[in-house]
Write a structure and sequence with these properties.
Two copies of one chain form a homodimer. The first copy, chain A, has about 325 residues and is an alpha/beta fold. Helices cover about 35% and strands about 25% of the residues of chain A. In chain A, α2 links the parallel β4 and β5. Chains A and B meet through α1, α3, α4, β13 and α10 of A and α1, α3, α4, β13 and α10 of B. β13 of chain A pairs antiparallel with β13 of chain B.
């Protein structure tokens, strides 16, 4: 059994807990929290809840620590820190800062002889893998990534900060015409506006000026100004009833040419349609946690990403079983 | 530069030759043929054409030999044989015999200290990878593979063997309703007939009995009897004009559930739409040839499949470049 710790018990931590139940070679040893441990109730009977302060004392009882903090401030500190004591895995998703994060984590993990997997999930993660494979296979071509339909937590939060807004949910939606053009090998150059629509469901406070709220949303720099944005005002009941999920997904498409005169077109498309963004991210992380454990068993160390890990390491099946049933 | 040999110069061999032109770190050294070398004209100026008999004498001039023979009789012999002298890669695609082929090739490659990659292409190959990744990420779910729309060489050949048939082309086409049901997470159990349609374009010889030909096609065991089959009789001119390509493609879909009570559905879908089946297969093989060369440089040996090879090995970019641009 691979003994797992979960550091941080929000949506992602609970998703990891559920995913572990679907993998019979892994067991959850303890959840670690910054809150008072006695205030945290896990989904699983009998799982220990410990303070983050006590994590290091558990270093011989945990084969891999799954870090479920945020990319803005938690993971840049936690991943290199805990890589000193544990094999670790995170879902660091600030794309621009990945090289720096990699270097920090790599130094710590190598020094300690541990494996650290960073930026695991679906983007970065499964989407990145598909970009890499498709680029290697079709060296002459174009890459497109579309996100959605799905909830953007950051954009929902931005709307909620507007005066007069009680609650809100924002969906990012790919533009169908853009997808069709890409799939048709037209190699379009797409503006931000041409790629995605933003649809907002907003609960206004009583007496709030709806026209002003709508205008503030649609003109908000970075978040909405560059998009075609649709705003619906609805009741809190309707929001709770129809928009309480956290779905997401998207498309990674590469089109490219082959042939002596580049006469043949090819389309490689990978897509995800997810009812629960955090639970799917968790499922990816748990498969890579298995891989990290195996790499450590084989004597490897240092920071790894999905690019460095042989696919077979993710599966509980043996090489012979995989070749027989999946090749 | 990675120095490449091509063994066998049919559609696949020519596809490899074209793909190498798109990869500036690789060069074609020689084509090897069973025909009289002077009768073979390559697409590239100045490429040597040698007899297969002379291949072994070139063992120090070639970093990897790409074996472009057929799976029925060529590769079971050639891959273990040439793995004694070269790093090799093949596209062995008889799924049921992969375990046996793997063992034979592994023994020869290990003995010689070479790397051998088998069963490379898109199915087996990229489709297999997607089955593995999706299964590892969603342990509780269902797998579906659909092929097409594309030309089946075997089915086209079977039609051409019918008396009164001058020429023929057969397309395998996924049934849209089945695809829709799968994507909708209905987890259908699909019969052969429910998954694919077979559409045939047939040129009859003058005076042939069309009704008999159509009946022989539709009732042919293994090939057509279990499918809904559409037969069109057309002229040779029309066949040559509209059906001379070798397109193919397909879909690998896994649907699965997560959550404490399995309340959330997820759909992972990978699809290919290819103008040229052999050229795309070649493009995959060439990327894995690069990986094989690198593994050999690192001192590894033995038989490998797409499951064993870290994705980063396929790309000409460095780890740091990949993390910066594709993660």
């Amino acid at each position: 059994m691979i003994r797992v710790g979960i550091m941080g018990y929000g949506n992602l931590g609970r998703g990891i807990e559920c995913a572990l139940k679907q993998n019979s070679d892994m067991e959850l040893v303890s959840v670690f929290t910054r809150r008072d441990p006695s205030s945290v109730k896990t989904l699983t009977e009998g799982v220990m809840v410990c303070s983050v302060e006590d994590a290091v004392t558990m270093k011989d009882k945990i084969d891999i620590m799954i870090l479920c903090g945020g990319s803005a401030t938690d993971l840049p500190v936690q991943t290199p820190e805990y890589a000193k004591y544990f094999n670790v895995i995170d879902s660091f998703d600030t794309h621009a800062r990945i090289p720096e994060h990699f270097d920090n984590v790599d130094a710590a993990a190598k020094e300690a002889g541990n494996i650290a997997v960073i930026s695991c999930g679906w983007d970065p993660g499964m989407f990145s893998l598909n970009r890499l494979y498709a680029n290697a296979v079709l060296p002459e071509g174009n890459d497109y990534t579309f996100w959605g339909k799905g909830v953007s937590q950051g954009h929902s939060d931005a709307i909620r900060r507007i005066e007069g807004v009680a609650d809100a949910k924002q969906y990012t939606i790919p533009v169908e015409a853009a997808l069709a053009s890409v799939r048709n090998c037209e190699n379009p150059t797409l503006t931000t506006r041409e790629k995605h629509i933003r649809e907002c469901f907003v609960v206004a406070k009583e007496g709030a000026d709806l026209a002003r709220i709508e205008n503030e949303i649609k003109t908000m720099p970075n978040y909405f100004a560059d998009y075609d944005t649709i705003v619906h005002f609805i009741s809190q009941e309707e929001l709770d009833k129809n928009h309480s999920g956290i779905p997401h997904g998207g498309f990674v498409i590469r089109t490219g040419k082959t042939g002596l005169n580049k006469e043949n077109n090819h389309v490689i498309e990978y897509s995800l349609k997810l009812d629960s963004n955090p639970e799917f991210t968790s499922s990816v992380i748990v498969a890579y946690a298995r891989a990290a454990y195996r790499m450590k068993q084989e004597g490897m160390s240092g920071c790894k990403t999905v690019f460095d890990i042989p696919p077979a390491y993710l599966s509980p099946l043996s090489g012979a079983e995989l070749r027989k049933h999946m090749l």
